[in-house]
């Protein structure tokens, strides 16, 4: 799939991809590999799709929290300016929600110092069954 919203030098980082096949990577191979892995997250919810009782009202797919965690760690390991830009844009500017099956959230116990609308530590109801729910990604630059 072709996309004009890809970061130059990558074929997987942005909305869609420009990869001729699943093995192809752009000039920034380490970063592109992270984006490819994230794009291929086995558990995601496309924009305007309902799955697991959750509706994605966003403009792009939302991933299982495990996939977002792997994406964050992969970008950190790449240790390049491009990987940093991708990570900053995704986790700090776009700030997507991820989803996971967890005990029901009661409230946010602790937010981030510079971003009170994002939760770092949740209080959950351990006595209730786990359910699919949206969570804030906890991979922003910490302050």
CATH fold annotation: Phospholipase A2
Which strand-content bin applies to the residues? 25-35%
The CATH architecture term is Up-down Bundle
Can you identify the CATH superfamily?
A: Phospholipase A2 domain
Structural class: alpha+beta
Q: How is the biggest beta sheet arranged? A: 2 strands, antiparallel
Please tally the β strands and state the result: 8
* Overall helicity: 25-40%
Count of the domains: 1
**The CATH class:** Mainly Alpha
What strand line-up does the widest sheet have?
Answer: 1-4
Protein name: Phospholipase A2
Pfam families: Phospholip_A2_2
Organism: Megaselia scalaris (Humpbacked fly)
Keywords: Calcium, Disulfide bond, Hydrolase, Lipid degradation, Lipid metabolism, Metal-binding, Secreted
Ordered list of secondary-structure elements with their pairings:
Layout: H1 29-39, E1 44-45, E2 50-51, E3 54-55, E4 62-63, H2 65-78, H3 81-94, E5 97-102, E6 105-112, E7 115-124, E8 131-136
Antiparallel strand pairs: 1-4, 2-3, 5-8, 6-7
Helix pairs in contact: 1-2, 2-3
What does this structure look like?
The protein has a single domain (29-136), classed as Phospholipase A2 domain (Phospholipase A2, Up-down Bundle). Helix content is 27%, strand content 27%. It contains three helices and eight strands, in the order αββββααββββ. The protein has helices spanning 29-39, 65-78, 81-94; strands at residues 44-45, 50-51, 54-55, 62-63, 97-102, 105-112, 115-124, 131-136. The strands form four sheets. It has a two-stranded antiparallel ribbon with strand order 1-4. A two-stranded antiparallel ribbon has the order 2-3. It has a two-stranded antiparallel ribbon with strand order 5-8. α1 (29-39) packs antiparallel against α2. The chain is globular. The model has no long low-confidence stretch (mean pLDDT 87).
């Amino acid at each position: 799939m072709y996309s004009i919203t890809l970061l130059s030098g990558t074929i997987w980082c942005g909305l869609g991809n420009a990869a001729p096949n699943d093995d192809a990577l752009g000039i920034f191979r380490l970063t592109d590999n992270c984006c490819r892995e994230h794009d291929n997250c086995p558990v995601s919810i496309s924009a305007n799709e309902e799955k697991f009782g959750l509706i994605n009202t966003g403009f792009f797919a939302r991933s299982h929290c495990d996939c977002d965690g792997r994406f964050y760690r992969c970008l950190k390991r790449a240790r390049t300016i491009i990987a940093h830009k991708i990570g900053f844009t995704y986790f700090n500017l776009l700030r997507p929600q991820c989803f996971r099956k967890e005990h029901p959230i009661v409230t946010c116990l602790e937010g981030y110092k510079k971003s009170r609308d994002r939760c770092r530590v949740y209080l959950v109801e351990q006595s209730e069954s786990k359910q699919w729910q949206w969570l804030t990604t906890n991979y922003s630059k910490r302050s």
